[in-house]
Design a protein that fits this description.
By secondary structure, the protein is an all-alpha fold. It has a domain of 61 residues. Helices cover 61% and strands 0% of the residues. The longest helix is centred in the last third of the chain and has 32 residues. It is elongated and about 60 Å long. The protein starts with 11 loop residues before the first helix and ends with a helix. The N terminus is likely disordered.
Amino acid sequence: MRAGRPLILGGRLPADLAGRRVGESDLLVGAGSMIRYDEATGAGDPAVAQAARDWLLAYNRSDVEATRAVREWLDRAGSGFPSAADLGP
């Protein structure tokens, strides 16, 4: 964890390290996503449910983009890493 930055959960820390700037709105929202899921699937107000579904779509898109950034970074930089066999027992 870098000084002055809150803990980034899931794939967002590796994505941040791989060069994808993680926005403050992306930080520590995992638990909040469960609340939004309940809002989206509950039998409450249809407008609240739609707003929650829209939020979840954006949140999940951000997760996919973070995963993609890590994969692209590994594709670029990974060839410079030693193989497991080179590290020995």
